[in-house]
Amino acid sequence: MRKFIVKRLLLSVVIFFFVMLIIYALMRCLPSSYIENVARAKSQLPGSKSYDEWMAQLTAMYNMDKGIFAGYIAWLGEFFTGNFGDSWKYTVPVIQKFNETVWLSFIMGVITMFFELIIAIPLGIIAATKQYSKTDYTISVLALAFISLPTFFFIALLKLVFCVRLGWFDLFGLIGRTHEQLSSWGKFLDMADHLVLPLVTLVIISIGGLMRYTRTNMLEVLNADYIRTARAKGVSEHNVIYHHAFRNTLIPLVTIVGGSLPGLFSGALFTETMFAIPGIGYASYHAMVEGDIPFSMFYLAFLAILTLLGNLIADILYAVVDPRVRIA
What we know:
The N and C termini lie close together (8 Å). The chain has helices at residues 2-28, 34-43, 51-61, 68-80, 94-129, 134-148, 151-165, 184-222, 225-232, 237-259, 261-266, 269-275, 280-289, 293-321. Helices cover 76% and strands 0% of the residues. It has 2 domains: 2-80, no CATH class; 99-321, MetI-like (MetI-like fold, Orthogonal Bundle), CATH 1.10.3720.10. It is mainly α.
């Protein structure tokens, strides 16, 4: 196991190097950037230098005068020494802006995953154990509807019903107009109230796929020979389903849970942006739109590391949930 983990970690370093090289090259090839916008704005001031002069000065200031590969090597060296630079858009150190926004997205991600697991997995099991029944058809139709539901349309529908028609929630933001006048508990409730619709959106959009995945794998396990043998020996249906079948259904589900690790920190870019929730997804969206290369590179590097770590954790957990799995 130790050799396997070391081998996977070394392979992850190589993958990380080439993934970030591709991302850096794409960032450098963006048609517009923060530097160009600043140079254009400064060149229009009375008595200012020309656009080309400002571009040359700002490019040298931000180390953008090197080639793509040379610039990437320089960025990589600073990244591994903990020098993440300053955000061009937010004009603060990248790590500071990251810390200010990531924990809100993390809390939303944890709550979303909690409800996703306690809703989708039991419904998937129920659909599998009652195959071709009305319950199975109902759950399957709901799962397909949730999978097919466009996020932007669902958010617009929620806003129309609960914000415009009923007036229960605000359309945008994390806090209300009277937030500063409230007590500590009142501020907490105000923020929780503004997170209701974003969390409902994330849960509804995410549970459909897991419901279908659980149902499919549960059906495959229930049709296995050892399940028929257990039933023939007189084992109760409850033990057959939840002791024998469900344990083996967990094996593919571990892949889903392990792969969900980046999602806990990456934020819901589309949902946060449409609801104007100041999480890491919202911040990274505006950073990318403005061509903020330092912040965007740090954010994407962070996601790449979490993705590689999530895959490694999933492989290790295989041996935990199934003793038959052995790593040579």
